[in-house]
Amino acid sequence: MKNLTLPSLLVLTVLFISSCSTPSYFVPAIAGNDVSYLPKPMGSDSIKVKNYISAGLAGLSLPYGTGDLTMGVLNYSRAHTTKNLNIAYGVFGFAGETNYDSEYNKDNNIPEFDGKGIFGGGLRTSIGYYDNAGNAEFRIISWENALTFESGGYADFRKQMKNLNNPNIISSTKTTLFTTGMASEIIWHPKKNFNHHYAFRLFYGVTPGLNNSLRNQYNESLKGGAFDFAFYFKLNKLYGIINSGVNKGASSKLSLGFSF
After folding, report:
1. What is the reported pTM?
2. Rg of the chain on CA atoms, in Å
3. Which of 19, 145, 150, 175 is least surrounded by CB atoms within 10 angstroms?
């Protein structure tokens, strides 16, 4: 070490700082928000088939503070409940834009991506088994799926970032996502009011191909599956859903709607 010169020390310092810099991740806009709670009638309801329409706001915080995405979402679904079985299916559309912390952008040399447009839509399904226990219903296991398609300026930006081959910028070019997994839920109504529902639901699944799409030349990638926690409430025909999840970024969603 005694033979190291000042220039050599400076070079080593720069290399060390570069190797320790925080990577920037650009993931699909709908990741984490593609799966959402699909309302269904309870077995105790007099009407076993219902339609649900809602509008909401969704957000995604990109990994390592890279930036944030905000979107408006429109949802429509239809659900059927029979003895010990419920089924729901629906469509949704979303639109929004990107935003980021300018100081983070400056410090990490990220190309400007503020205000990139986000557009897309998709399909959702859910089928599950439930059992009754008084005024509560245990939806023991459900199989849930979401297929989404994304376009817009942010999708184009992610492709540009992939082509840079920068080890500190890890970007997925996927614009079609399929997320599938299992959920468990408890839903109940007050003993004197069958038209008020409250529920908690936990989902865990995977998005095939998403992890691999985030690998760079150093074989680094984000790992893990898709988690989603939901709270649902229905007051007569009006309802609301609060979702919070993780799938390559922290996601959140608030929806308000009407059932008929």
Report:
1. 0.86
2. 22
3. 19
